[in-house]
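assembly run, all chains below
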Amino acid sequence: MSITTTDEIETTRTAIRETIYRACLLLDDGRFADWLDLCAPDFRYQIKAFSPEIRKEMTWYEQDVSGLRTMIEMLPKHNTDHGRLMRHATVYTIDIDRDGGNAVATTAFSCYRTAFDGINSHLDAGESQLFVIGRYHDRLRLGADGPRFVERTVVLDTRRLDKGSHYPV
Amino acid sequence: MTGIEIDTTRYDSGERMPSVDSRIYSNRQIFEEELEKIWKKVWLVTVHESEIPEPLDFRTITIAREPIVIVRGTDGTVRAFLNVCPHRGNLILRQPSGSLTVAEPSGNANHMTCMFHAWQFDCFGRCVDIPRMKQGYQERLRNEDVALTELPCEVAHGGFVWLSLNPDSGPLSAFTGGAFDAMKTELETEPLDVFHYHKAIIPSNYKLWHDTNSEFYHDYMHYFNRATSMVQKGYFDRRYGAFPNGHATVGSMEVKYDAYKGAAERPLSFPGMERNGWKMVDLFPGATYNIRGSSLRLDTMTPISADLVMIEFRGLGLKKDTAEERAQRIRDHNTIWGPFGRNLHEDLLGITGQGVTMRPGTAPRRILHGRHENNLIHDEIGMRHYYAEWARRMGRSPANPMAAPIAMAAE
Ligand code: FES
Ligand SMILES: [Fe+2]
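ok done. output:
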């Protein structure tokens, strides 16, 4: 797949941007299976952060597609926080490799949690708090049925996550 | 390796149903007293030596509200000082970590500089520069009078930096006693290396986290543990050991990780540990070493107030790990122990809920610590043993904590 004309480039960029935003909406709505439909079979998902305390880049979460599916399938068996996570994202840059049919995109995002159980639900339910901020570093494959995620590395700037979460961000 | 005979008489007095009063978790006065009688008195495990690998590397922490800097000297020795300027009390180092080799805007390289009036200290805590010293203090001040306060500090038990705010703390070995005997080979054969760090501030009392780490009855909360451990051979044979000064250990079992869909057997281990083994050492007053097959997790706590605690979580492997081995240890660790892991989130929700019912000012309630199962896994002896030591140091009964305090009992 080769992308050459200005029009083709613009159309591709729009499609990529939409795919990233669509993924955000699906994650916001907890539609994980639909989110995975936007991913290639060889998709790899990671959450990383740098710790100045131990002077190392850390991997906090790492899954392939089948791992993500299993994880999602197992969630109902786990006790979990019932708050909803919602993202605000802006796609900053998209770089298209015109011959290889690949693209990389960098998206800044913040992810808020609207409490349901919160700490004490009587007080907290309905309150939105910033959960994490960071960037999505995505690699997408450009195919006939649109761009598909091949890799997402979530690089978190937030390092204190308090009670944490069972869900991908 | 079962440690001492457990004497809980100072605590449960042979009651049919041992319990504590919830005010040990909620009362502000008790909390302040704990800082004085416990946290400022005992040895505490803090950062790992691999966090300050080079001479002049430093880390800053806080214990019982006292700011502390841990620095590796030019001689390679790790030392700890109060991170408090002897001039007018400013915090000296403000970053969590760094290297003193980097010069500060108001100070030279290789020194700790207080930015306020540019007093400078070296890695041995000596005051080495006071601007316009003679003009202002004439002969009335000597550099020796304004050195940083050095704290007892030892590197031990897997390369961790232990320290105490108590200048008379005695040697660390007298405090930890035999608590590490059952984990010695795992911790001491090979140098360890930290690969994971994250922290949580939770609105709950710090002891509730230690309680969680000291009892396994709550495995009912973890689907992961029910599947991989509770229904597996050996689980109900895991035995608690109790050691002087409030420490406890939990014996190993073989965990069947592949009994949880999506988890896999853990081929990597620690020296001397069977594959998929699982051992714990719970340290008074608030730290836990936890080895599950391929990964060592260390929890350390910084109590902030009666109903607020910071918990720091570290994950460690062996320094000699290949890149593949390290990646595997990290994956194993994250499955249950990362901030997105299966179990940690559940554990934190548990103490968050307890924190709600035990806010300062809530009605006193009975909290049961009464399971007797021959010191095996669902016995609550780990907690009872801890509170026997708490009672000794506090001079208070956990079951009747607001009665007038009595003098600290002999060891
Ligand atoms: S307070 Fe530190 S130099 Fe003055
Ligand atoms: Fe747990």
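Residues 44-154 of chain B form a domain with the Rieske Iron-sulfur Protein fold (CATH 2.102.10.10).

The longest helix of chain B spans residues 342-357.

not gonna interpret more than that til we talk
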